[in-house]
Amino acid sequence: SDISPLEIIQKLSGHVTVVLRPDPAHPIPLRGPLPVSVPGLSFFVRADGVGPSLAALLVSHSKMIHFWAEGGINFYENTTPSPVGGFQLSTAFQGRTLYLASSLAFLKECLKGKETLAQNPNLRQALAVLGTEGNGLTYASPRLLAELKQTLQAAAAKAGPPGAMLARWADKVPGLSFPVVLRRMNERDGIVFNSDLTRSLKQDVMAA
Q1: Distance (Å, rounded) from C-alpha 142 to C-alpha 179?
Q2: Through-space distance between the first and last CA atoms of the chain, rounded to whole angstroms
Q3: DSSP 8-state secondary structure symbol assigned to residue 83
């Protein structure tokens, strides 16, 4: 059986966590008129509420999925080779919670992680200023920002005329020695962002 995107949205409980980690050792080749390789990226997603529906969908495609249970968690791994180097989508379910990652190794690493972002002293220090109440939280480490800037600069150097736009984007990525924390609050008359960035977000929002 299939599941529609609308059904997934309706079943979400509102709690979604996304983790991105640069992986320069496994660059991703981007094909096209101007081929370029960008630093690899590992990702992990946790979404509450959609587990049962998506688990049933994966079981219906069992010829392409290898699944097993381990430690009270049901794991599903795509057996079809990924066209993107370094990616081999893996999924896990625990009750109504969905876990999705770029690889089985990174999935298990995130699930077994003993240190959480909530324990990070830099985040605690930022939230002491910004506040702890809100609807969304973004945390970008200096390493992630540096990799993003490098990726944009490399793409700009090989992109010909469109490279000027990529170069401008690269210039907007701050080079910092400390993480960036952004707190989002959904208000009745709009969305409020509080951050510890070195400049205001107003110009970026107006230009978007």
Answers
A1: 5
A2: 38
A3: S
Number of Cβ within 10 Å of residue 173's Cβ equals 18
User: Closest by alpha carbon to 26, among 82, 91, 70?
Assistant: 82
d(CA 122, CA 127): 9
Short-list 145, 143, 47, CA closest to 93: 47
Q: Which residue has the higher pLDDT, 60 or 201?
A: 60
What tens digit of pLDDT does each residue of 126-142 get? Answer: 888 778 787 788 888 88
Burial of residue 70 (number of CB atoms within 10 Å: 0-12, 13-18, 19+): exposed
Instruction: Work out the burial of residue 1: count CB atoms within 10 Å of its CB; fewer than 13 is exposed, 13-18 middle, 19 or more buried.
Output: exposed
AA identity, residue 204: D
CA-angle at 174, arms to 171 and 180, nearest 5°: 150
- Helix, coil or strand: residue 185: strand
Question: pLDDT at position 13, please?
Answer: 60
- Rounded to whole angstroms, the Cα distance separating 36 from 67 reads 35
Q: What is the CB neighbour count within 10 angstroms for residue 30?
A: 12
